[in-house]
Amino acid sequence: MFESLSDRLGKIFDGLRGRGALNATDVEAALREIRRALIEADVSLEVVRAFVEQVKDRAVGAEVTRSVTPGQQVVKIVHDELVAVLGETAVAIDLNAPAPVTLLMVGLQGSGKTTTTAKIAKRLKERQKKKVLLASLDTRRPAAMEQLRVLGEQVGVDTLPIVTGENPVQIARRAEREGRLGGYDVLILDTAGRTHIDEELMAETAEIKAIAKPHEILLVVDALTGQDAINVARSFDSRLDVTGIVLTRVDGDGRGGAALSMRAATGKPIKLIGTGEKMDGLDDFHPSRIADRILGMGDIVSLVEKAAEHVSAEDAQKMAKKLKKGSFDLDDLRGQLIQMKKMGGMGGLMGLMPGAGQIKKAMANSNIDEKVFDRQIAIINSMTKKERAEPDLLNASRRKRIAAGAGVEVSEINKLAKQHRQMADMMKKVSKGGMGALGGMFGGKMGGMLGGMPDMSKMDPAQLEQMARQAGIDPKQLQGLPAAQPQIAQKLPSDVGALLKSGSGLPGLPGLGGPPRFPGLPGLGKKK
């Protein structure tokens, strides 16, 4: 959702980085463009003014004029101020209270409260092993209670039985009693919303708060709302004293202004962001990572965390052993395709890479069709176990049978077989030549960005430029990285770091200490 803002800021910084020295006029011109870009991105005017003033105070001072690379220093200042606006550090949902810990979900109708309630329940159950009870207090919207019951079944979480005729306050009392007697760790109350803020809504929600005494009050706001999101947040906060904000539809085509405005306008942290319609489409909000994405620096830490979440150490070891032998059959290929889909597909992964804007444009221009993954998985599923293990058995008659079973043309089978053969040959080279043979992976770009994870803050400009040219990257893309950015490995969770040091690496990411998990980006064909 930050693409348009990222593109605008990227052009501004490219102009600054191209200058050897900056004067006050240059900085003023850049700040004017930054102000215009933020306003067009639906950032609140008061937040824009404060942000630009903070940047100006630092950018026209000695911090920039004495810098060896003034343009880069301005980028770093903007990055630091973005992090400050977004909230400095990530703030998780606080469960440090006597059980059951009550979470109250509030917000306008259509903001995604009910779906977000189920997502949080799934997250607490799977990641923190909490016993969760869901209760819908929405007696106005048709089938709202039934919707939460269905979602609860879907994520494997208990929901409060529906009793017709009860009002929200009565349901809240019953939910609190059931949560206490049932030995639940967390009780999540999903309240009713309105299409707009009114006194009746606020009075009802305030009464529920007085009865339920929630430990956390989470305001759910649609990121596509734009500048009005701030008015919504302030209205709820003034009456309920919310403890945190959840932004939904962050994966949409909104301009991103709500995210930049909410924390600064309310003083309340954004705790979670909704990144998709699926039940696992909910991420922690990390201000520094969001700032990195806005400035086109990518989000390598989130990329590694995604890989660690979907690739177990056991699977990594198995794949490492197979690749050492130079073995790569169609079952392995299917596994890679499934892992790629779980991690968000090509679009999701590329969005976390440095220079994501240019990469996404290149993908759009080449008409890459991600549905080809589904077709290729269907093709492999239509094969016998022996055919998957020995692809050389695929003669003309077998290919016709597989095509009929998968509902595709024989030409699709031929393409898949050719891709597998190329990848298998590559794996043999890797097994003989080690990690040095991976230089050409991903067209050289991703390997160059990720391979070895050097500390860019300790490299002089000449080294950076040489590394960029070897990786086939425009050196200007690397100049946007803050000079003081710490080594990525130091920011990784301990379990991911241990996996990297174990020797098996993260096979899902070439260059991260292990063999490639998605060699050659299989199956990226043209849209039909």
Walk me through what this model shows.
- The chain is α/β, with parallel strands linked by helices.
- The protein has three domains: 3-86, SRP54, nucleotide-binding domain (Four Helix Bundle (Hemerythrin (Met), subunit A)), CATH 1.20.120; 101-294, Rossmann fold (3-Layer(aba) Sandwich); 329-501, 434 Repressor (Amino-terminal Domain).
- Helix content is 55%, strand content 7%.
- It is built from 26 helices and eight strands.
- It has helices at 3-17, 24-40, 45-59, 62-65, 70-86, 113-128, 144-155, 168-181, 199-212, 228-240, 257-266, 287-294, 300-310, 313-324, 330-342, 345-350, 356-365, 372-381, 385-389, 396-406, 410-433, 445-450, 461-470, 475-479, 488-491, 494-501, and strands at 101-106, 132-136, 158-159, 186-190, 216-222, 244-248, 270-274, 282-284.
- It has an eight-stranded mixed β-sheet, sandwiched between helices.
- Helix 1 (3-17) runs antiparallel to helix 5 (70-86), helix 2 (24-40) packs antiparallel against helix 3 (45-59) and helix 3 packs antiparallel against helix 5 (70-86).
- It is flat.
- Mean pLDDT is 74; it is low at 434-458 and 477-528.
Stated plainly, the CATH topology of the largest domain is called Rossmann fold
The secondary-structure class comes to alpha/beta
Find the CATH superfamily of the largest domain: P-loop containing nucleotide triphosphate hydrolases
Distance between the termini: 27 Å
Low-confidence stretches: 434-458, 477-528
Largest sheet: 8 strands, mixed
The CATH class of the largest domain is: Alpha Beta
Q: Compute the number of helices.
A: 26
The count of strands amounts to: 8
Characterize the overall form: flat
**How many domains make up the 3D coordinates?**
3
**What is the strand content?**
5-15%
